[in-house]
């Protein structure tokens, strides 16, 4: 019997230390080392273990697409790549109260109504609480099997009885514990061991398992990063508590495209799918105010039109404010520097506020041109045409660089009634993009953008005088 010894494991990165210290040497996190026991197999047993010989195959061969189990929720199936793959394990993360359990209980109910066996294991709530949520969502008629349990061995033994479950939901992985690890639930060792046991069950039985994960203050899934490498897909459920919109985003997917998003709206009856998110994000916008520009963006394979709002005001502080919501702070600093260096604008004594409307987060560089247009519009007081959209990446030289999927962006803009699109001058436009009915206005650099908005401002002042 191996003698167990005490080790200290970082709860942030999983690094192991032989003694306690206030700061982890690997990730730099303070007060993250927790004492855990290290009871391993004897060295002689490990040396005596021998593996079996297996057959190796070549690259050539018939490839079959993975079978899918569609949930019936189109936005959910879009993100997963067409539905659940039998034997796969998914990790769903999100902030508390964002709607993770609501989304999963709706997916479980839809599958169960189609005749599939679905098991929902709650480690945080009692069965009565889950039933109360199902009653509120009008899902009590769905034959979903519920249980409140935290012991992994008990859960797997229960799921092994009767018909093979098509879907098993574990809410959440941080509450699970297994006898294979001698540490407290929620620690790195327990989360890793529990996830490994559930992953092994999914691969051997063919059941799809969805693990719900907590998130840290930085928005990352809590626990060891090795869990994200173990699972087949990592989904994040995002949203702002002040808005009804929720975005389901895939940051990893072995059976589909990454970067895909599904858009939902929180209603009194749960999460409702949003078939046309562009129209929803642009609803209620004030097209007659300066400092607003619409970007024709892409999220995965889906085009989205969202509004970027900017406010540039004189500052009375020695160091002007730079506040950003839904946009990268570093990219804003770069755009401001390029506008000063190559656009002739003086922004050093102005407070700058930038916001992406609707609680959305603009990640791609194609939003640079729209952000720059909104900043120039706010500074000059020029109101941009309400039927004009922008897309393009801004380089440090001031040049506007081309981006991908221009045709899809233009088609989406044409569907929503936009007549003009400011695009990079070197942008390649496909035939379907040119047939969208949107007039293409090429822009070579930020100097040309500033000059064009200045002409709009001068024309508006002339109209106001006359």
TrEMBL record:
Motif RadA KNRFG motif boundaries: 252-256
Segments of this protein annotated with the region Lon-protease-like: 351-466
Domain of life: Bacteria
UniProt binding sites for ATP: 94-101
Keywords associated with the record: ATP-binding, DNA damage, DNA repair, DNA-binding, Hydrolase, Metal-binding, Nucleotide-binding, Stress response, Zinc, Zinc-finger
InterPro entries (UniProt xref): AAA+_ATPase, DNA_repair_RadA, P-loop_NTPase, RecA_ATP-bd, Ribosomal_Su5_D2-typ_SF, Ribsml_uS5_D2-typ_fold_subgr, Rubredoxin_2
GO CC entries: cytosol
GO BP: recombinational repair
RecA family profile domain span: 65-215
UniProt-listed HAMAP family: RadA_bact
PANTHER family in alphabetical order: DNA REPAIR PROTEIN RADA, DNA REPAIR PROTEIN RADA-LIKE PROTEIN
Comment block on domains: The middle region has homology to RecA with ATPase motifs including the RadA KNRFG motif, while the C-terminus is homologous to Lon protease.
Protein name listed in UniProt: DNA repair protein RadA
Organism of provenance: Methylocystis hirsuta
Gene from which the chain derives: radA
């Amino acid at each position: 019997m191996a003698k167990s010894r005490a080790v200290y494991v970082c709860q942030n990165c999983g690094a192991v230390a032989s003694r306690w210290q206030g700061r982890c040497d690997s990730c730099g996190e303070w007060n993250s080392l927790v004492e855990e026991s290290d009871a391993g197999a004897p060295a002689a047993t490990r040396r005596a273990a021998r593996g079996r010989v297996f057959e190796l195959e070549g690259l050539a061969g018939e490839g079959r697409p993975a079978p899918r189990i569609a949930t019936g929720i189109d936005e959910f199936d879009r993100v997963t790549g067409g539905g659940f793959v039998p034997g796969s394990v998914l990790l769903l993360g999100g902030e508390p109260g964002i709607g993770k359990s609501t989304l999963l209980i709706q997916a479980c109910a839809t599958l169960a109504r189609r005749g599939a066996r679905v098991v929902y294991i709650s480690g945080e709530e009692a069965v009565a609480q889950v039933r109360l949520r199902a009653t509120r969502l009008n899902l009590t008629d769905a034959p979903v099997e519920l249980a409140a349990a935290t012991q992994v061995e008990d859960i797997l033994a229960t799921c092994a009885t009767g018909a093979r479950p098509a879907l098993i939901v574990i809410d959440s992985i941080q509450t699970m514990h297994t006898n294979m690890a001698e540490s407290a639930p929620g620690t790195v060792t327990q989360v890793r061991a529990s996830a490994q046991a559930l992953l092994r069950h999914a691969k051997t039985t063919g059941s799809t398992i969805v693990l719900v994960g907590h998130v840290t203050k930085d928005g990352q899934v809590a626990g060891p990063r090795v869990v994200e490498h173990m699972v087949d897909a990592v989904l994040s459920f995002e949203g702002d508590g002040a808005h009804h919109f929720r975005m389901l985003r895939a940051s990893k997917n072995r059976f589909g495209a990454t970067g895909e998003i599904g858009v939902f709206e929180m209603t009194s009856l749960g999460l409702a799918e949003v078939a046309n998110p562009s129209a929803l994000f642009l609803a209620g916008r004030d097209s007659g105010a300066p400092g607003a520009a619409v970007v024709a963006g892409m999220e995965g394979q889906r085009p989205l039109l969202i509004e970027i709002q900017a406010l540039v005001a004189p500052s009375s502080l020695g160091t002007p404010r730079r506040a950003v919501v839904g946009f990268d702070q570093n990219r804003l600093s770069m755009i401001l520097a390029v506008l000063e260096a190559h656009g002739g604008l003086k922004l050093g004594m102005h407070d700058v506020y930038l916001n992406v409307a609707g609680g959305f987060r603009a990640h791609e560089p194609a939003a640079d041109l729209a952000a720059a247009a909104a900043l120039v519009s706010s500074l000059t007081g020029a109101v941009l045409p309400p039927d004009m959209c922008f897309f393009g990446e801004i380089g440090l030289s001031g040049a506007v660089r081309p981006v991908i999927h221009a045709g899809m962006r233009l088609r989406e803009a044409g569907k929503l009634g936009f007549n003009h699109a400011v695009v990079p001058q070197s942008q390649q436009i496909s035939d379907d993009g040119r047939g969208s009915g949107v007039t293409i206005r090429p822009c070579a650099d930020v100097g040309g953008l500033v000059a064009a908005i200045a002409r709009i401002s001068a024309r508006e002042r002339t109209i106001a005088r006359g």
